[in-house]
Amino acid sequence: MIVDLVFQLLQMTLVIMVAPLLTGVVRATKARLNRRRGPPVLQPYLDLVRLARKEAIIADSASWLFRITPYIVFASTWVATALIPTFATGLLFSWSADLIAIIALLGAGRFFLALAGLDVGTSFGGLGSSRESLFGALAEPAMIVIVFTLALVAGSTQLSTVAAFMTSSAVGLRVSLAMALVALIIVALAENGRIPVDNPSTHLELTMVHEAMILEYSGRHLAVIELAAMLKLALYISLIICVFIPWGLAIADASVADRLFGAFVFLAKLLAGGVALGVFETSIAKMRVFRVPDFVGAALMLGFLGALLLFVSRTLK
Amino acid sequence: MNGAALCLAGDAALLALAVAGAPTSARPLGRPLVYGGSLVLSLALLAVAAEALLFGGPGASLVLPLGLPWVGARFSLDALSAFFLVVVNLSAAAASLYALGYGRHEHDPQRVLPFFPAFLAGMNLVLVAADAYTFLLSWEFMSLASWALVMAHHRDGQNARAGYVYLVMASFGTFALLIAFALLAGLDGHFAFEAIRAAPPAATVAILALVAALVGAGSKAGLAPLHVWLPLAHPAAPSHVSALMSGAMTKVAVYAFIRIAFDLAGPPDWRFSIPVLVVGAASGLIGVLQALMDADLKRVLAYSTIENIGLIFVGLGLAYAFRASGLDAAAALAMTAALLHVFNHALFKSLLFFGSGAVLTATGERRLNRLGGLLNRMPATGLFMLVGAAAISALPPLNGFVSEWMILQAVLLSPALPQWTLKILAPAVGASVALTAALAAACFVRAFGIPFLGRPRSDAAAKAEEVDRISLAAMGGLALLCLIFGIFPGQAIDALRAAVDQAIGAHMPTQSSIAWLSIEPVAASRSSYNGLLVALFIALSAIMAATIIHRFATAALRRAPAWDCGFPDPAPNTQYSAESFSQPVRRVFGRIAFTPEERIDMPRPGETRAAYFDLRLGDRIWTTGYLPILKVVERAATLLNHLQFLTIRQYLSVVFGALVALLVVLASWP
Predict the structure, then answer these.
(1) Closest to A53 (Cβ–Cβ): which among B413, B424, B553?
(2) B437 contacts in A (CB within 8 Å)?
(3) Chain B contact for A299, CB < 8 A?
(4) How far is CA B412 from CA A149, B307, B424, in A?
């Protein structure tokens, strides 16, 4: 029991410690590919500390909701991330929410962030909220149909069970899973505001989405929101890892050594994922805002097709 | 004592209150008398119903020597009725409490007070009626009482039209139910529910009866495409009545459907689940898209009712399909999900309508584009509205999430269905449920964000003041219930056990004994959710993050003008409006459900005249479905108009001709 609790806490601290590093790796990769030297890999940590120590300035028209939103967004994202089996399945609290609930937790974060964008009453904030609401309304159902696919393959919406099933030899190659993978990558790009959907390094552009919503934030509020965004990126990459490349994952009741080994393998895979994201983002152009619904809609259709194939091809045990 | 008799006594007392309300309504005493009395009676009925639902054994019944001579007026209180009585009377109690404060601002109390208890009595009577005659009579009574309430502010031109459309559609719905019951009762006139149950109709007749029931109950519940009256009528009534119409009366229609489809119509036929699923999913999508486009707070809420009713019918359709294939455990899950959503929707939709009433009281405005910044002026109302908006958007750890999660879990069981059509339909329905839920979140970001956040868009909004404490207590109580049932979903599921048992003949595994108060609809390895832990984790990590930062970094805060990229515009009109917020969604989904017409008149550079933007949204369903029917009716009416100007001799010959024709038909009947 104590060991379980320790590993659950380790998982929670691990994701929050690693998330800024992951963002740093993505940025460093992009800088290298642009033949820039770029900031050091650890720069996101320094940025967060710097922001947290600064005085927060909020607009005159902002309400109390504006002040608590960063913490709500952070908390819901952190809880969601802590429920992903990053290095071991069957952690102490892994059963408290399944994949659908994880998606809904992220949805809660988006809901409040979109409200915060409207709170100050500026046109940029509204612009960000309105577009984020549309992208979310397309990405969330796409995510749900991906869950349908995974749930039908593994017989569970419990992420721990799905991941454990994926490590077993019973999976084999499936068309549905390939479709779900492509759909999941598209959703991950859209949800994290990465190129080609949104540009995370942009400011003062009419095409920005996430940055427009948080334009009025400063100081510690901004630090918390940035950390939540980094966590969300780590969440999606961990999700893809634990479902589609789960090798090295420690299955429930594994020994302590296995779990620690799992943690190292996870770190390596996560950082490799960060490099891959950097390469992908450098090699593709950002698309117009109104091409995005087609892009995310493609994920919805792919995921749906994958689920449909499974619905008609098998009955549940 | 007999529960049915207690319920009837309560209904009689409500009717007496309605009569007493008529002469006193214009006096200051009338409001506390009527609403206080309704509150007490609703709470008493709630207690009776809850007792029957939680502890009641076999249903209690009662026959009064009224109604049709060979049937009598039959009433019974079984678990299914009891569950819906709980929903209706809980909403009614909340609405009565709210109206004690809100009703103070009513300018025509004599048009509201007498009908309010009558409306409550009507809904209660439908739920305990146990023969077709009493059922339809109560149903019609409920419709007429609510119609009177819709027409309370009849001088407003739009309300008169709303009342007219409502009356026509309600009559149509009752007519369809009449046909359904006639088909169920058969030629011998077995109008008592017991007799129908004992001798269910043949399969083909049953299917016809079910379709008629879907049309009749669906038109009352607001299923597309029979929903057109709902967004007109619900907002037209005073806000506490809107809350009841959306939160409770639509549920009475759901009850009618469940009663007929799961109880009276005999063994299920899987083919009937197809129209239910399709209509449910379509209503969900159409409702939420309309809600996203509309710029009137109460109409947004009314459209969102259509969406939620759609989700409920998806759950019912799944339950029906599972039951038809003998998958009882899955059917119990789907039915529990649907009933839980019935309950949850009654909570948060009442809450949201109360909030819209508070906004209306404080500002006199329902138009989103005339509001703004109310969270600063009305902090308590704003907080409760936020809880309601989050709950209806299915955000964990609130109650709306639990029922939508369970509907998705039920969808995931559908590969077990043997029918190919349903295997293909189920994932499509599941995807549309997910899309609906996601759009609903966007819709309520807009419906809460535009009026409550930002800067005031009108003087009225800038001068708004918090409403009275009684109204706040009603809203606060409902918001608390939304949280409680989100955190302890297992208890709610267990409470539904008897009702699900009665509809399906099976129930979900007991939830409240599971460790840590989790819920596990099928098996622990398959899916589980723990509202309590999720709520605790979120609260703890938010508080922890805030404490650490305030303690070890800084807690300094400064207020300053908005940054807005260095170009802050002081005019509140430059904020995002309701239309601009939904513009991206309109661009993506608009052509499916609407015929949007945008006219943009942009002056050339150098010209000084104002730019002009005009948006008209046509409703495709109205233009393609209803207008042709209206035209036909109008033409027929013009033709028949000649009949009004005949002489006595001509009338007599018309009557004689009709009589002969009928006799000929009767004589040649096989």
Answers:
(1) B553
(2) 140-141
(3) no
(4) 9, 21, 12
Is residue A186 within 8 A of residue A105, CB to CB? The reply is no
- d(C-alpha B463, C-alpha B454), whole Å: 15
Q: Using 50, 70 and 90 to split pLDDT, how confident is the model at A310?
A: confident
Contact B379 A111 (CB under 8 A): no
- Cα–Cα separations (whole angstroms), residue B308 to A167, B287, B412: 39, 8, 20
Spatial separation of the C-alpha atoms in residues B393 and B516, rounded to whole Å: 25
Decide if pLDDT at B538 tops 60.
yes
Give the pLDDT of residue A259.
Answer: 84
- What count of residues does chain A have? 317
Nearest CA in chain B to A99: B527
- Nearest CB to A216: which of B423, B455, B562? B562
Give strand ranges (E) for A97-242.
Answer: none
C-beta separation of A277 from A194 below 8 A = yes
Which residues does chain A have within 8 Å of residue B526's beta carbon, measured at their own beta carbons?
155-158, 161
Residue A257, min C-alpha distance to chain B (Å): 25
d(CA B463, nearest CA chain A) in Å: 15
Q: Which of B375, B524, B583 sits opposite A130 (nearest CB)?
A: B583
The boundaries of the domain holding residue A157 are 2-313
Q: Which phi and psi angles does B599 have, rounded to 5°?
A: -120, 120
Whether residue A196 has a cis bond before it, omega within 30° of 0:
yes
- Binned at pLDDT 50, 70 and 90, residue B1 comes out as low
Quote the pLDDT of residue A204: 64
Contact between residue B450 and residue B492 where contact means Cβ atoms under 8 Å apart: no
- pLDDT of B460 > 90? The answer is yes
Q: Helix (H, G, I), strand (E, B), or coil: what is residue A240?
A: helix
Tell which residue, B150, B205, B139, B203, has the closest CA to residue B172.
Answer: B139
User: What is the distance in angstroms between the Cα of A151 and the nearest Cα belonging to chain B?
Assistant: 8
Cβ <8 Å between B427 and A130: no
pLDDT in tens, B359-414: 999 999 999 999 999 999 999 999 999 999 999 999 999 999 999 999 999 999 98
Whether the predicted pLDDT of A314 surpasses 70 = no
Q: Residue B169 phi/psi, 5° resolution? A: -70, -35
**Number of C-beta neighbours around residue B438 at 10 A:** 27
- What is the predicted pLDDT for the residue at A317? 40
* pTM (two decimals): 0.95
Number of neighbouring beta carbons within 10 Å of residue B66: 13
How many separate domains does chain A show?
A: 1
CB-nearest to B545 from A75, A126, A304 is: A75
- Cβ neighbours of A57 in B, within 8 Å: 557-560
Residues of B with CB below 8 A from A307's CB?
Answer: 427, 430-431
Phi, psi (deg, nearest 5) at residue B557: -140, 135
Interface of A with B in 90-149 (CB under 8 A): 93, 95-98, 100-101, 104-105, 107-108, 110-111, 114-115, 118-127, 129-131, 133-134, 136-141, 144-145, 148
CA distances A40 to A234, B2, B632, Å, are 19, 78, 75
A83 and B538 Cβ atoms separated by less than 8 Å:
no
Q: Which helix (H) or strand (E) holds A129?
A: helix A123-154
The tokens for A217 are 């934030």
> What is the average per-residue pLDDT within A55-76?
94
List the one residue out of B205, B407, B422 whose CA is nearest residue B321: B422
Pick among A4, A9, A95, A221 to test the B interface (most B CBs inside 10 A): A95
Give pLDDT tens digits for A281-308: 999 988 888 889 999 999 999 999 999 8
ipTM for the assembly: 0.95
Q: Which of A105, A218, A293 sits opposite B588 (nearest CB)?
A: A293
pLDDT bin (cut points 50, 70, 90) of residue A27 is: very high
